[in-house]
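We give this protein:

***
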Amino acid sequence: MPHTYKEYKTDKYGLSIVEGENMVENTKLVMTVPEAGERLGVCRVHAYKLVKLGQIPTIKLGRRIVVPIAALEKMLAGADIVKVNKN
């Protein structure tokens, strides 16, 4: 069977996107707090407030505070969906 080559592209978060497949492979294990905020749809200042409240999972690498991508995805997967009633 001949080997097929796939074209890889990377988005701005360091995630490798495999062309022609519905698969995204993480090449980056962590992201910065502002990157996590952007992915969550909140501003940088609010992202740091959520970190301080313990609502965004973080680890410290030296002097840097980073967000493990797997922990953020796991947290979001287990989050309760809240319905908003519009009166």
